[in-house]
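Quick entry, no commentary yet.
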Amino acid sequence: MNILISTLPVFLFLLFLFLLDSFKLVNKLWLLIAVLWGVFSAGLAYLLNTYLIEITDLDFDQYARYLAPIPEEIIKSLFVFWLILGKKAGFMIDAAIYGFAVGAGFALIENSLYLYNETEAGLLVAIIRGFGTAFMHGGCTALIAMILINAKHRNAYFLLNIFIAFAAAYFVHSAFNHFYIQPLLQTLGIVLFLPLVFVFIFNRNEKQLHNWLEMEFSSEMELLQAMKKGQLSQTRTGEYLAQLKSRFRGETILDMYCYIQLYLELSIRAKRNLMLKENGLPPVFEQDMSEKMNELQNIKKQIGKVGEMALAPLIRLNYRDLWKLNSLNYTEK
């Protein structure tokens, strides 16, 4: 019963976060893998912590307060790095949920091992572990995920933000292990504070997502229609491409034209699917999606890096744009 109390709350909160995702950005398979990675990382951290305690000759309390947060947060966050760098998470909402899922899996093993070894631990300890320690692990990994995904959106210096993310997670983790506040009050504070923070962040992020979809969907539709009607020369995009004719060969200009049109088609499809999922409708996947994605990559290679830089004012391929195109691939599967 104590083990159940120490693990169930964090998974119920994970379900709560999943239900908050009105855009259905979270892929259920990645979510399951995130939990499993948390389970695996807890086992790995247990072995590593046992070894480090022996070689550092520190007592358990000192090690838990100052050194344990370092390997634990690094190991947990590896899955988050894989998601973000692989463009399988595109917004703060889904990145945070994946991060919290990793922490939930980690807490499942850590709390179970703790209560198994501490046979005299009572109900109060189980409550503190379940609502305090478990939520702390989920919150720290979610914090790292949110900082990193935000850095990608802002095109900020990623290495610097990695340091900031880990420093923030370390501070929270270490402060929690110090128990500056009476453990029961500290746990109560986390239970009351963390849901409010997540709800605020999710609501703010969803408003931004709404604005992004509405603004870009409309402008991309107008540009694509102009291209199909042969009226591109009357747009600013057409004027800009005309200026590039003196700098690139005719074949490259044609590739650029095809690249822009193909990108717009795929981008509009990705936004359409996000809107369908938000309204509880199944996304639509045309048979040629994978083919068009491969074609886009091939044209990109033909244009080259210089051509990409030249098109940067027209197509802002930031992290969010790359994610929405990449989502056409992994969501279809």
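second:
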Amino acid sequence: MMPGYTTRQTITGMCLFAILTLPQFSLAKASQRYPYQSCFEVSAAMHKVPLELLLAVAATESNWDADAVSSANAHGIMQIQWPGTAKHLGVKRLGELYNPCLNISLGAKYLNELLHTYNKDTQTALAAYNYGPTRISGSETLPDGAKRYAAKVLSKQSRIKKGLVPEALQPKSHQNLVVFDSRIRADRLAAHLNADIQGATVDVVRTQRPNGGYAVVLNVGNAGLTVQDHVMLRNMGWALP
């Protein structure tokens, strides 16, 4: 049994303490960026792994689904394999892997362990996270599937570093935000949004409703919305995914 993983209560207490002591941490601000971001920030700080890398692994492994289960018997948002990896990390009960913050903390701890095992070679550590350490002997002999997995995670990490929301969190390319009876009101809102949004354009189109109306339509560009775009739209009341 590994220190710090005796019970779920221990992990919860450690995370709460870390949240309260993390410099300049803002729960309200963080919660509007990525699912469970407060847990990601705390776990990255506790286990000394790059936050963007931890977020990218979660995006690749489960698309942020805390209830995800794979054919390899991996569970939760970080896809911790049961029973092997989970028990190695001190987990006694399968149900614990469905506590999102605990699962994220376990994933961060495991990622830190792999980074140290492979001398901070991120590609090889990611390959081992995906394939299992017993199947990874070194960067020169990585299986093609492991290379593709690592490349996918690193691409997502780069996207997150640039302030872009991961693809799984992006709204549809063309999404109606609101419909007005008045064209003038629709145009005013579109102009306001176009002045502030970086990763999309906003148009006004006539609806096909029997009684007419004008829809304010969000058209997301190829690069996707930035984090700032995403937060601004959510703060204005649009529940983007």
